[in-house]
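Per-record layout

source: Agrilus planipennis
name: Protein stunted-like
length: 58
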Amino acid sequence: MESWRAIGMTYLDYSSIAARNLRKALKNRSREDVKRRDVPVVKITPYKNGEPDREKTF
Protein backbone atom coordinates (compact mmCIF):
# COMPACT_ATOMS: atom_id res chain seq x y z
CA MET A 1 0.00 0.00 0.00
CA GLU A 2 1.22 3.51 -0.77
CA SER A 3 2.56 5.40 2.23
CA TRP A 4 0.28 8.40 1.63
CA ARG A 5 -2.77 6.14 1.62
CA ALA A 6 -1.64 4.32 4.76
CA ILE A 7 -1.74 7.56 6.76
CA GLY A 8 -5.16 8.54 5.43
CA MET A 9 -4.04 11.20 2.94
CA THR A 10 -5.62 11.67 -0.48
CA TYR A 11 -3.52 11.56 -3.63
CA LEU A 12 -4.36 15.20 -4.31
CA ASP A 13 -2.98 16.21 -0.91
CA TYR A 14 0.11 14.07 -1.45
CA SER A 15 0.85 15.51 -4.89
CA SER A 16 0.25 19.07 -3.66
CA ILE A 17 2.79 18.62 -0.86
CA ALA A 18 5.29 17.02 -3.26
CA ALA A 19 4.93 19.90 -5.75
CA ARG A 20 5.33 22.50 -3.01
CA ASN A 21 8.50 20.83 -1.73
CA LEU A 22 9.90 20.55 -5.24
CA ARG A 23 9.34 24.27 -5.84
CA LYS A 24 11.10 25.07 -2.56
CA ALA A 25 14.10 22.94 -3.57
CA LEU A 26 14.64 24.72 -6.90
CA LYS A 27 17.33 27.35 -7.34
CA ASN A 28 16.16 30.97 -7.58
CA ARG A 29 16.26 31.27 -11.38
CA SER A 30 14.43 28.00 -11.89
CA ARG A 31 11.94 28.95 -9.19
CA GLU A 32 11.09 32.19 -11.05
CA ASP A 33 10.53 30.25 -14.30
CA VAL A 34 8.20 27.83 -12.53
CA LYS A 35 6.22 30.67 -10.90
CA ARG A 36 5.54 32.20 -14.32
CA ARG A 37 4.22 28.89 -15.66
CA ASP A 38 2.20 28.14 -12.52
CA VAL A 39 -0.88 30.13 -13.56
CA PRO A 40 -4.10 28.13 -13.64
CA VAL A 41 -6.37 28.77 -16.61
CA VAL A 42 -10.07 27.96 -16.54
CA LYS A 43 -12.31 28.45 -19.56
CA ILE A 44 -16.06 28.58 -19.11
CA THR A 45 -18.40 28.54 -22.09
CA PRO A 46 -22.06 29.15 -21.28
CA TYR A 47 -24.57 27.68 -23.73
CA LYS A 48 -27.92 29.08 -24.85
CA ASN A 49 -30.26 27.01 -27.01
CA GLY A 50 -27.53 24.42 -27.57
CA GLU A 51 -25.02 26.93 -28.99
CA PRO A 52 -22.01 28.49 -27.22
CA ASP A 53 -22.87 32.02 -26.09
CA ARG A 54 -19.45 33.42 -25.19
CA GLU A 55 -16.24 32.14 -23.66
CA LYS A 56 -14.79 33.41 -20.40
CA THR A 57 -11.17 32.81 -19.44
CA PHE A 58 -10.17 33.08 -15.82
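summary: The mean pLDDT is 80. Residues 3-57 form one domain.
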